[in-house]
Amino acid sequence: MRIFLFLLTLICLHTHAAEPDWQPFQWGSGSLTDGPPERLALLLPVSVNGIACTVQLDTGANGEWNWRRRDAAAKGERAQVNVAGRRRAIPANAANLAPLKEANCGGGPIAMVGNALFENGTLTLDLGQARYAYTEQPLLAGVHDAQPLLYLSWAEGGGHTVVEIRHAGTGLGYALLDTGAARFGLVASDDRMWQALIAGAKPSAGTSTFSFPGPGGETVSCGERPLEDGLEVAGKTLRNVSASYCQGHSFQAPMRLIGTLGMAALGNRTLVLDYLSRRWTLSD
Fold first, then answer.
1. Do the Cβ atoms of 157 and 63 come closer than 8 Å?
2. DSSP H or E segment with residue 221
3. Which of 127, 161, 200, 210 is the most buried (most CB within 10 A)?
């Protein structure tokens, strides 16, 4: 009986430990095509010097923290921030902190946070219920069905999350897993990949075009159409995925990628990114 109770206690503790400590996030919505509102950004709540703000989560960015309003380099002063339960002292200057004096913290995300903030643990994103969790543990270390997560460093600080994908037109390859590309499905890395992705597509599907300002103020022009035959990601076949090709954007990876995998391709699934074990999962 004592052995049974001991084992039961271990099972209960394990079950409790496996349940994420969920926190809500927000979807920043709008439209790049003058159509219905879309999910454009994944926004996490954060406090900066005790004031409630939001930051944009961007797993396409390697660094820890990038202020939205920038002037000269931040020197000397530090902002006390709390995001995902992590308390940090971030270099700041007057321009960075100006939104703290405005209503609703300036009305937009005060900064962008990237992979370096989460690389010492596991980040879980429940896209359907708009909630997330972070823990400084390798939650997928013993999970048999977890898929490889490449965490590649090609810039100073942090790294980039790269995953395997497969499509009939391109075969097996790699894509940058990017929460910053919230409204996109799969964005082809170049014209060659774009042509491979849309090869065999039904002419009636057509290609829609739209433009928007990039992060540096540059004009980004995109073509988009439904992706035929679905897309294989993390052992799942994703349907109703749109493929895009954009010109004018500044990001270029130093390795050959099929493209960038955005959150629209994943729908309302839950993804778990275990930076420590270099593994990830995607729910059904």
1. yes
2. strand 219-226
3. 161
- pLDDT tens digit sequence for 231-241: 999 999 999 99
DSSP character string of 90-146? EE--HHHHGGGGSGGGGGS-SEEE-GGGTTTSEEEEETTTTEEEEESS-TTTT-TTP
Distance of alpha carbon 1 from alpha carbon 202, whole angstroms? 66
CA distance 26 to 56: 10
Q: 187 pairs with which residues across the strands?
A: 244, 260
> 247: Cβ–Cβ under 8 A, 6 or more apart, which residues?
220, 221, 222
Rounded mean pLDDT of 88-115? Answer: 95
Give the integer Cα–Cα distance in Å for 186 and 224: 10
| Global confidence as pTM | 0.89
- List the chain domain ranges: 23-122, 139-282
State how far Cα 231 lies from the chain centre. 18
245 vs 231: CA distance, rounded Å: 16
CB atoms within 10 A of CB 134: 22
Task: Of 1-15, 76-90, 239-253, give the range with the top mean pLDDT.
Answer: 76-90
- pLDDT score of 229: 83
Q: Give the integer Cα–Cα distance in Å for 40 and 108.
A: 12
Residue 48 has pLDDT above 60, yes or no: yes
Cα separation, 194 vs 189, in Å, equals: 7
As a CATH number, domain 139-282 is 2.40.70.10
The runs of H, that is alpha helices, within the chain are: 2-18, 94-97, 191-198
Mean pLDDT over 87-95 rounds to 93
